[in-house]
Amino acid sequence: MGMFTDTTHLHIFTWVVGIILFVIAAVMAKGSKGRKIAHMILRLFYILIIITGAFLFFKWSSSDAMLYGIKFLMGIVTIGLMEMTLIRQNKNKPATVMVVLFIISLLVTMFLGFKLPVGMQFF
Ligand code: HEM
């Protein structure tokens, strides 16, 4: 399963596509067909983000269980906040707080990912 664990490319691909789909769905008109389709494909990408992240996690986490554990958790939280933002918008409820929490959670997740030793290391 080297394609999942030797590099982070596949994982990066899945969350970049996921974030783009999230932004597209979030700015599209509520109830529109395009928004529903973008949201549907986004949900498929949640799964792909988790699968590619989990492969990296199970291969590498023994080197720093604590930080990898937090990375795993924050990745899931970031996905949860995308979903909650879209659902709140669909229900015509205020979503600004969710968007702000999403941005913070995304930055923390990216910081942890880039801090951890596999793949790119910016911090
Ligand atoms: C939207 C959600 C997510 C974002 C934005 C994200 C972002 C990142 C980033 C920026 C990296 C660093 C890539 C590199 O250094 O080349 C990374 C690596 C990683 N991610 Fe995620 N991730 C997300 C979700 C997840 C989830 C759900 C999991 C666990 C199931 C996960 C587990 C990992 C692991 C284990 C690594 C490797 C860390 C390392 O050793 O360098 N990620 N992620």
Unreliable residue stretches: none
Strand element count: 0
Shape: elongated
Computed over alpha carbons, the radius of gyration is: 15 Å
* Gap from first CA to last CA: 27 Å
> How many separate structural domains?
1
Hey, roughly how much beta strand do the residues contain?
A: under 5%
pLDDT averaged over residues: 97
| Assembly state (oligomeric) | single chain
Bound molecules: protoporphyrin IX containing FE
- Number of distinct helices: 5
Structural class: mainly alpha
Q: Residue share in helices?
A: over 70%
Give helix and strand order, one letter per element, not per position. HHHHH
Question: Largest sheet, described in full?
Answer: none
Molecular structure report:
The chain has 123 residues and is mostly helical. It is built from 5 helices and no strands. Helix 2 (9-27) runs antiparallel to helix 3 and helix 4 (65-90) runs antiparallel to helix 5. Protoporphyrin IX containing FE binds next to helix 2, helix 3, helix 4 and helix 5.
List keywords for this structure.
single chain; mainly alpha; 5 helices; elongated; binds protoporphyrin IX containing FE
Secondary structure layout:
Layout lengths: L1 H4 L3 H19 L5 H28 L4 H26 L5 H20 L8
Helix pairs in contact: 2-3, 2-4, 3-4, 4-5
Bound molecules: protoporphyrin IX containing FE.
The site of protoporphyrin IX containing FE has 29 residues, from helix 2, helix 3, helix 4 and helix 5.
Question: Care to give the gist of this entry?
Answer:
The protein has 123 residues and is mostly helical. It contains 5 helices and no strands. 79% of the residues lie in helices and 0% in strands.
